[in-house]
């Protein structure tokens, strides 16, 4: 049996050969455009004018009637239009459903992140409130100093207590 010899290598792609490549979404995008056009008032107006002219020409014309009174050809055209329009509209709706599904998933993920951030901030705020509850305030310190003064000997006012009281009075009066 003779051996077939070729000069091409099987481990390398063919070069210089034009390949016919089709965008897989091309037909889907076309169907969306058609579905969008079918749902416009412009389409309805154009279709109404075409039907009116069709009927008028076939009723009034003495010669050249291509579709006499029952308008079977016109009915066939409408049936064909409906047969193609319905699947195109369904295809466009399916693509829109896919886009809506992706958008919904992104919204859910964003909502989960927002919820987690909100819960984190709520925990941080609660921790700050607890920490602030343990901080000694000016009034608390004043009260403790007054108790200490009473224990040490009622009449004696320590220098620190005078400073605290005078600072509080001067602040209330608008001083520094």
UniProtKB/TrEMBL annotation:
Domain of life: Bacteria
Presence of keyword Lipoprotein: no
InterPro entries: DUF1003
Alphabetically ordered keywords of this record: Membrane, Transmembrane, Transmembrane helix
Start and end residues of each stretch annotated as Disordered: 155-176
Membrane-crossing segments per the record: 43-63, 69-91
Protein name per the record: DUF1003 domain-containing protein
The species this protein was found in: Pseudonocardia adelaidensis
Lineage: Bacteria, Bacillati, Actinomycetota, Actinomycetes, Pseudonocardiales
């Amino acid at each position: 049996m003779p051996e077939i010899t070729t000069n091409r290598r099987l481990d390398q792609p063919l070069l210089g050969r034009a390949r016919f490549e089709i965008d897989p979404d091309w037909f889907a995008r076309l169907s969306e455009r058609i579905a969008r056009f079918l749902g416009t008032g412009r389409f309805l107006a154009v279709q109404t004018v075409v039907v009116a002219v069709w009927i008028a020409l076939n009723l009034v014309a003495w010669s050249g009637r291509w579709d006499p009174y029952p308008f079977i050809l016109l009915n066939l055209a409408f049936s064909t239009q409906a047969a193609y329009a319905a699947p195109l509209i369904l295809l466009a709706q399916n693509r829109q459903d896919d886009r809506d599904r992706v958008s919904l998933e992104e919204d859910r993920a964003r909502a989960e992140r927002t919820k987690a951030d909100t819960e984190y901030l709520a925990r941080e705020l609660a921790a700050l409130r607890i920490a602030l509850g343990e901080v000694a305030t000016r009034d608390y310190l004043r009260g403790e100093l007054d108790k200490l003064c009473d224990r040490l000997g009622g009449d004696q006012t320590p220098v620190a207590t005078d400073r605290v009281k005078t600072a509080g009075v001067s602040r209330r009066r608008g001083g520094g």
